[in-house]
Amino acid sequence: MAASTHYRIKICQSPQCRDFLIEEVVVHTLMAREIRAAKLYPAKQLEILKVFRKRLIEDVPVGLDNEDYIRFTFLRAKI
User: Fold this and answer.
1) CB neighbours (10 Å) of residue 31?
2) Are 31 and 67 in contact (CB under 8 A)?
3) Which of 28, 51, 59, 71 lies 20 to 30 A from 44 at CA?
4) Considering the domain boundaries, does residue 9 fall inside one?
5) Cα 37 → chain centroid
6) CA atoms of 46 and 59, how far apart (whole Å)
7) How many C-beta atoms lie closer than 10 Å to residue 52's C-beta?
8) Domain range spanning residue 17?
9) Positive or negative CA dihedral for 60, 61, 65, 69?
């Protein structure tokens, strides 16, 4: 329980933040349950999704371990 308390305090300072994280976890979980896939995204992965994927706390949603996260960046060429 300590890990979930830590993340709740560290990440969610407002009800809007909490609602956003719940929505993100639900969407990622439902998509990951459908098919194994990689999530390609040009930003850092949400910390709470890392915690859930690694199953660092009890009773996390099932399915997130079926989704891999790949961060990419765009490089600008100087002209």
Assistant:
1) 15
2) yes
3) 59
4) yes
5) 14
6) 18
7) 21
8) 2-71
9) negative
Nearest of 6, 48, 8, 42 to residue 24 by alpha carbon:
48
In single-letter form, the type of residue at position 61 comes to: P
11 inside domain: yes
> 71: which residues sit within 8 A by CB, 6+ positions away?
41, 42, 43, 44, 45
| DSSP letter, residue 60 | P
pLDDT of 65 higher than 60: yes
Q: Position of tokens 């891999």? A: 68
Residue reference for tokens 């390609």: 40
pTM of the shown model: 0.64
pLDDT in tens, 10-45: 666 788 888 888 888 888 889 888 888 888 888 888
